[in-house]
Design brief:
Protein name: MerR family transcriptional regulator
Pfam family, one: MerR_1
Number of helices: 19
Distance between the termini: 108 Å
Number of strands: 2
Largest sheet: 2 strands, antiparallel
Oligomer: single chain
Keywords: DNA-binding
């Protein structure tokens, strides 16, 4: 079979077949009287074998070894090909993500594209300062793809950078909420906590609904941040959770402030005071926890809180009694 016929039947161009010949991969078995290459059935079978191995990503050098070296084993080479393919897919996926994010911003010209690329690169920098400047610039100078901001916020470990990212997300409107909601579904508690912290910065009813969902999170830190954020928004359902936070001693000042803000509503003041007292008298409550609960009563108006403090001023725990007495003195002076 002449080279033109082989090319048509195999799908391998005549030019490539000549290249295979020059490399010694496939040398036609014979020549015609006019000197044209003439391929046998075995030659054609070898061509198909070469193409099959090339489809796996093998170089022509490795193809030759695979077909001609009896001692050549595929396992190591296949493992290498798997690794290289994974690396290539990761690189292509990263490129696709970058292009999609640039497209989402709808740049007007190449200057905009270059500015967005620079911001994205800075956002991925190892320097916390560069990441923070990129987050701030995304609001003040050039638009940053919301998806990139969310991804950075959910992975950022530096407190200052995280704060800048949350600030930027809060000014991006509702666009980031759906992505942050996905973060609440992460199997990693730290990611869910960062998602809650970011959602808490967005003053929106949809954000409030997401925070309510986070109150049932299996991780206590996630629940704590959700309760604090909801308390600051005036959600009365968080009162028991806020009282728990005061007793636990982590973020207790923030929780007490949230309870104080809620207690400015007359209908809630006695309810909060009763909840604090119930927790104070709970069996097994530690001295430090009881003292924090007593302190939380300081900014709760109404008769229930005042009566509770009067009783606590005679508490068996001297630290609690002194704290209650001091608070009563301040309340009387007002």
């Amino acid at each position: 079979m002449l080279i033109g016929d082989v090319a048509r039947r195999s799908g391998v161009s005549a030019r490539m077949l000549r290249h295979y010949d020059s490399l010694g991969l496939v040398r036609p078995t014979g020549r015609t009287g006019a000197g044209y290459r003439e391929y046998s059935g075995d030659d054609i079978q070898r061509i198909f074998q070469i193409e099959s191995l090339r489809s796996l990503g093998l170089s022509l050098r490795d193809v030759r070894r695979a077909l001609d070296d009896p001692g050549f084993t595929p396992s190591e080479l296949v493992d290498t090909l798997i690794r290289q393919t994974r690396e290539r897919i990761a690189a292509e996926t990263e490129l696709l993500t970058r292009l999609r994010r640039i497209d989402a911003v709808e740049p007007a010209g190449w200057e905009d594209v270059l500015q967005i690329v620079a911001l994205l690169q800075a956002l991925g920098s190892k320097s916390a300062g560069k990441r923070q400047r990129a987050a701030l610039s995304s609001v003040e100078e050039a638009p940053m793809p919301v998806e990139a901001l969310v991804e950075a916020a959910l992975s950022e470990t530096d407190a200052n950078v995280a704060g800048a990212l949350r600030w930027a997300l809060a000014r991006s409107g509702e666009d980031g909420l759906a992505l942050l909601a996905d973060g609440l579904g992460s199997p990693v508690a730290e990611v869910r906590k960062r998602a809650v912290q970011s959602i808490a910065e967005i003053p929106d009813s949809a954000a409030t609904a997401l925070l309510r969902d986070a109150l049932t999170d299996p991780d206590i830190a996630v629940r704590r941040y959700a309760a604090l954020a909801l308390g600051a928004r005036g959600v009365a359902d968080t009162i028991p959770a806020l009282i728990d936070i005061v007793a636990e001693g982590t973020n207790d000042v923030d929780a007490a402030d949230a309870l104080s803000a809620l207690a400015s509503r007359p209908a809630l003041a006695d309810r909060i005071a009763t909840g604090l007292v119930d927790r104070l008298t709970h069996d097994g409550a530690e001295s430090a926890a009881r003292r924090r609960l007593t302190q939380a009563l300081a900014d709760i108006p109404g008769g229930t809180a005042s009566r509770a403090l009067a009783e606590l001023s005679h508490d068996e725990d001297r630290a609690v009694a002194l704290t209650a007495t001091y608070i009563l003195g301040i309340r009387d002076a007002r």
